[in-house]
Amino acid sequence: MDRPRKPTLDTVAGAVGVSRATVSNAYNRPDQLSAALRERIMETAASLGYAGPDPVARSLATRHSAAVGFMLGQGLSASFADAALSIVLDGLASTVDGHDHCLVLMPGRDKGGPRPETVARAQADVVVAYSLPDDAPALAAVRARGLPIVVIDQPALLDTARVEVDDFGGARLAAAALWEMGHRRFGVMTFALHADGHNGLVSPVRQASTSFRVSRDRLHGYLDVTGAGTPVWECARSSRELGRAGARALLSESPRPTALLCASDELAFGALQAVRDLGLRVPADVSVAGFDDVPAAEHADPPLTTVRQPLAEKGRQAGELALRLLDGGRPGEPTRLAVSLVSRDSTAPPK
Amino acid sequence: MDRPRKPTLDTVAGAVGVSRATVSNAYNRPDQLSAALRERIMETAASLGYAGPDPVARSLATRHSAAVGFMLGQGLSASFADAALSIVLDGLASTVDGHDHCLVLMPGRDKGGPRPETVARAQADVVVAYSLPDDAPALAAVRARGLPIVVIDQPALLDTARVEVDDFGGARLAAAALWEMGHRRFGVMTFALHADGHNGLVSPVRQASTSFRVSRDRLHGYLDVTGAGTPVWECARSSRELGRAGARALLSESPRPTALLCASDELAFGALQAVRDLGLRVPADVSVAGFDDVPAAEHADPPLTTVRQPLAEKGRQAGELALRLLDGGRPGEPTRLAVSLVSRDSTAPPK
DNA sequence: GAGTGTGACTAGAGCGCTTCAGTACGTCCA
DNA sequence: TGGACGTACTGAAGCGCTCTAGTCACACTC
Known about the structure:
2 copies of one chain form a homodimer.
Chain A: H1 9-16, H2 20-28, H3 35-48, H4 55-62, E1 67-71, H5 76-80, H6 83-98, E2 102-106, H7 116-121, E3 127-130, H8 137-145, E4 149-152, E5 161-165, H9 167-181, E6 186-191, E7 200-201, H10 204-208, H11 213-226, E8 232-235, H12 240-252, E9 259-262, H13 265-277, E10 287-292, H14 295-299, E11 305-308, H15 311-326, E12 335-337, E13 340-342
Parallel strand pairs in A: 1-2, 1-3, 3-4, 4-5, 5-12, 6-8, 6-9, 9-10, 10-11
Antiparallel strand pairs in A: 7-8, 11-13
Helix pairs in contact in A: 1-2, 1-3, 6-15, 9-11, 12-13
The structure holds a DNA duplex.
C-alpha cells in the first residue's frame, strides 16, 4: 500500500524530456529558456501534481532558508496579550513576507527565552530577538550557530544589528510633564525587571540590577525626574490584570500618589481600572500615564496620556535589517526611532 | 577577506579521525558509540565551533522538517488582538515545542489566508489552519504540496484532521438562557461572515451565505432561539472597538433590544462599553453575553456571561493531531470539544 | 577450533535541488 | 567565409546530512 512517491524535479524533467537544470530554470530563471518550453514544463508539472521545488532541498542547495526566526521572551499567550508586541511583530511579518520569507516563531520557555534545543533546530538564517533578558541562553545558542541577529529593545550584543527607541528619554518626557503640572507624589509601575515572576514593590537593589534593558531605561527615566525614593511596583508581565492589582497597592499607600507612571499602556489600563475600583477619578484624583501608545490608548476611558513609539515602524525596520543581514550586509549602527509625548485626558494638575 | 567556512560534520570527523557517520551518531544515537569517543567528538566539535548538525541538511536527509506550519486568516496584529487565538496558539506551540518542533507562522494576506507563494516555500511538514474561509487559496496550495492538514474551527476538507467545538450548541445555550429569563428583544453581534471587511447590519441573504463556519454556526445558534427577524450586526474583525460601534448602533434601534448576544468576548467587551456610552447599565437595562470565555471575561465590569470553550485544550489537541499526522497517522474522526455556559453578572431578567 | 555473537565503527548511496562551466546551433557582420 | 556573439539547453559537482548494510576485532560457547 505504498503511496506513490512525490514527483521531483527529475520526474518532471523526464516526462518533458529535458534536463533537470532546465526544469529548475523554469521555476527560478524564466529568462533562461524559451517561453514555449517553459509553458510545456509547467503544464507537465501540473499534470503530474508537482507543486514546485521542494523548499528544504532548495534551501540546502542555496544555503538560504527564506525564513526569519523570531525569539520571544514569553509564551505566546502572554506575548500576544501585549498589543505593542503584536504590532511590532505584524510590522516585521509584513516586511519579510513581502520578500517571500516565513516567520519561524520560537516562544519563550526557558529563562526568558526559547530553549536552546529549539534554536538549534530552527530553520532560519537570521534571528530577531525581541526583548529577551540580556543573558538568555537562546542568544548564546544563536551565536553558536553563527546566525546573524537583530535585536529589538535590547542592548546590542557584539556584532548585532539593533533597533530601539529612546526609552529613557521617553519616560523622562512623561514624568517631566507631570512634574511641571505640579505633581510631587508619584507611583511607578514597571513590568518585569527580572525573569523570575516577581510581583510587588521593588527594592532599590533590585531596581539597580535589571536584566531587561527596556524596563531599566523606562524605570530610570521616570525616577530621574521623580527621585529615587519613588515607590516602584513590578508586574511579572505587562498585563492589565497585574497592572490593576499593582496600582491598587500603590494607591493604598499614604500619602496617596497623585500620579501613576506606567511602563506600558497595558499596565496603565489596569491602573485606570484600579482608580475606579477605589472610587476615585482620573484625572481629578489621580493622573495616569502610559507608554507605547497602542491603539486602545486613544479609546481608553479617559483617553490615555502616553509616550508614543512607532511600533509598526519598529517591526518594519527590524524586518529590513534582517533582510539586509540575510544579503550578507553588516550590522552597522543601531537604528534609533524617535518617541514623543501624547497628552490626552488621563493627566491633569493635582487638586 | 573570506570568512572561514562554517565547520560541518566532515570537519569534525576529520579532526577527530573518525568517519562522518560516527559524528552523526554522536549527536543522534549516542548508544551507537562508546561514551569516551562521543565525549571526544563533542569536545572537538565545541573547539571547532560546530553547533550541531545543520537543520536544513538534516531535514533533507530525513525528510522531516521538524516544523509545524500555522496559517492565519488575518495579519498578525489583528490576529493577536484576539485573546482566544493567542491562547489556542499557545496551546499548540507548547505541544509541538515539547517535541522539538518549531512553529512556522503564515499570516493572512490574501483573501483570508496566507499567500500561496508563502505556503509553497514554507518548510513545514504539516500545516494547521485556523479559522480560514472555506475557499482560501492557501488551503489549495497546501493541498498541492501534499502536506497533511489540521483544521481548527473549520469544516473538514477531504482527508483532513479537525478539532472543533460545538459552536451552534454553545450559542443556542446562551440564547436559550436569556430567553428563559424573559428576554424577547435581542440584538446579535457577529464577526466576519465574509472576508470583505464589511461592518454593518447583515441582510438575510448575507446571513445565509457565510464563508466562515464558526461565525455561521454561532450566528445560527443564536437565531435558532431568537428568531430569524433578529437584527444582526457584523464586525469585520473580532475587536473591542468594532464591537463598541456595532453595539451602539444596535442599541439605538427602537424598540431597543434588552439583550445583546455577541459571537465573541472581545465583541462583548465593546458592547459593555457601548452600553455605558449610552448612559445605560448592564444588566439592569441591557444584558450582554459573549462567547469564548477568555480570561478577561471574568474580570470585566461587570463580569461577563459567556460560553466557555476549552481554548488551550483546542490548541493542544491540534498540536497532538499535527504530531500524529507527522508520524504518518491518518486523520481519523474530528475531535469535538465540549462547551458550557458560564453565567456571570452581565445577564439578568429584563426589567 | 569452528561457530556464533556482539559492540564499535565505516563506506557510500542517497535526499531534491541549484549552479557553473560547457556544448550546440544559429545569426550577424565584415 | 569565417569568426564573434547570443540564445537555449545540458552535465555534473556539490549543498551537509542520515542511514543501511556492511566490516572488523574480540569475546564466548560447546
